[in-house]
Backbone:
C-alpha cells in the first residue's frame, strides 16, 4: 500500500483508489460516469452523475442511482405481496466492480461508463482484453492488469481468484428470469450488457426471492384487506370508504378500520380530504 520514494513513504495508486477521500484529484480517470436515458438510444438524458470518491463510496453511489432509475414493480399473488426489481442488483454490482478492477488506468482520457436504457444496462470500461484472452472463453479465466486492486477486492470477499465473475452474473440474471449478460469489445473497450424484462416485468414473479415476498396473512390482514390490496396493486384501483363498504358489505367503521390499517402498515396511501379521501397502493 506504500512505497519509498526518495526516502519518503508514499501511498501507491491502489491505496489512493481505495482509501483516499478524493482519489480523482490524483487519478482523474477513476471517476465513474452513470446515466439514465429516455428510450433505447443515447439521445436524451433523464438523469446523470459523475461518481467520485474511493472505490467503495462509488459502489454505494452506483446502488443509489440504480434504485432511483430502475423499476420496482409490485403484484399481489394469492396472499403475498411480491416486490419485483427490474434487474438483480448483485449482477450489476459485480459488473461495475469488475470494470473498476480490470480497466486500463493508463487510458487516462476515458472513464468507466454505466448506461441505463429502457431495455438494458451497459457497463463499458477502457481497455480491451489482455493478449491471449478469448472473449468467447472468459469463464473460469482470471487474468488482470491490476493485480493489487484485485488483491484488495479478494481480501474483502468481493472478488475470487478463479474467474467466477461472469458465471455469477449469469446465474443471478437467469435466476431472476432474465437472459445471461452479453459480453462485447467495441474497439479498445470492454462492455457487458444486461438485458431487462421490458414490459414483461410482472412475468418475473416466479423467480423473485422469498425475502422480496411479504406474507400478508402474517401481517394480520383479513381476506377483505388482501382482496382490496390486490385490486389496488394489480389493477390500479382506488378505494373510498363507500366503495369498500359496497364491495365487502361491511359497516362504515369496519371499512375505515380495514383501510386505515393498510395505510398504517405501509401498504396503501391516502390522498384527498374529507369525503374525497381515497386509498391507493403505495
Residues:
Amino acid at each position: 500500500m506504500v512505497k519509498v520514494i526518495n526516502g519518503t513513504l508514499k501511498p501507491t495508486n491502489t491505496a489512493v483508489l481505495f482509501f483516499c477521500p478524493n482519489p480523482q484529484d490524483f487519478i482523474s480517470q477513476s471517476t465513474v460516469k452513470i446515466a439514465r436515458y429516455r428510450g433505447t438510444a443515447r439521445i436524451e438524458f433523464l438523469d446523470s452523475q459523475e461518481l467520485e470518491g474511493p472505490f467503495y463510496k462509488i459502489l454505494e453511489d452506483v446502488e443509489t442511482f440504480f434504485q432511483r432509475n430502475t423499476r420496482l414493480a409490485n403484484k399481489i399473488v394469492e396472499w403475498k405481496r411480491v416486490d419485483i426489481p427490474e434487474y438483480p442488483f448483485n449482477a450489476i454490482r459485480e459488473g461495475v466492480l469488475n470494470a473498476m478492477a480490470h480497466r486500463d488506468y493508463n487510458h487516462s482520457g476515458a472513464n468507466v461508463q454505466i448506461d441505463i436504457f429502457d431495455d438494458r444496462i451497459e457497463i463499458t470500461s477502457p481497455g480491451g482484453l489482455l493478449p491471449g484472452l478469448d472473449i468467447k472463453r472468459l469463464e473460469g479465466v482470471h487474468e488482470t492488469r491490476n493485480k493489487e486492486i484485485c488483491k484488495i477486492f479478494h481480501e474483502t470477499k468481493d472478488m475470487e481468484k478463479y474467474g467466477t465473475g461472469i458465471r455469477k452474473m449469469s446465474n443471478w440474471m437467469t435466476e431472476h428470469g432474465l437472459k445471461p449478460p452479453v459480453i462485447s469489445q467495441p474497439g479498445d473497450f470492454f462492455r457487458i450488457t444486461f438485458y431487462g424484462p421490458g414490459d414483461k416485468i410482472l412475468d418475473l414473479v416466479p423467480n423473485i426471492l422469498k425475502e422480496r415476498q411479504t406474507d400478508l396473512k402474517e401481517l394480520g390482514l383479513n381476506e377483505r384487506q388482501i382482496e382490496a390490496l390486490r385490486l389496488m396493486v394489480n389493477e390500479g384501483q382506488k378505494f373510498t370508504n363507500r366503495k369498500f363498504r359496497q364491495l365487502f358489505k361491511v359497516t362504515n367503521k369496519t371499512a375505515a378500520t380495514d383501510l386505515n390499517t393498510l395505510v398504517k402498515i405501509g401498504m396503501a396511501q391516502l390522498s384527498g380530504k374529507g369525503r374525497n379521501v381515497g386509498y391507493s397502493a403505495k
Q: What stands out?
A: The chain has a mean pLDDT of 91. The two ends are 48 Å apart (CA to CA). The CA atoms of residues 240 and 278 lie 5 Å apart. Residues 211-281 form a domain with the Arc Repressor Mutant, subunit A fold (CATH 1.10.10.10).
